[in-house]
# Entry
Amino acid sequence: MNMTISGHHLEITPALRSYVSTKLDRVIRHFDQVVDVKVLLSVENQKEKDKRQRAECRIGVKGNDLFAESSHEDLYAAVDELVDKLDRQVARYKEKQQSHDKNTAVKHLM
# Structure
């Protein structure tokens, strides 16, 4: 699995890199077939201070991509919100996969 963490108008410090990878480990542990993870952290030039820090993530899994983005005034809070969104998407995706697997198993028995 490849994990790419990059910054736009922002330098990625080792502390920030370890924080993001630790948080994403919570989401990635649900999957065996994760192909790659791409995280983009950026600071937008807006006049208002709130929701200026932005975090985006794309997780490539077998046959599908999961994408989430989050904006906040604090970058660490944006990463936390991003991971929460991805965790919900992963749970929904796994539930959908398991329900499809059960339906095909029942069809083969009939």
Summary: Strands lie at 2-8, 34-43, 53-61, 64-72. Residues 75-109 form the longest helix (35 residues).
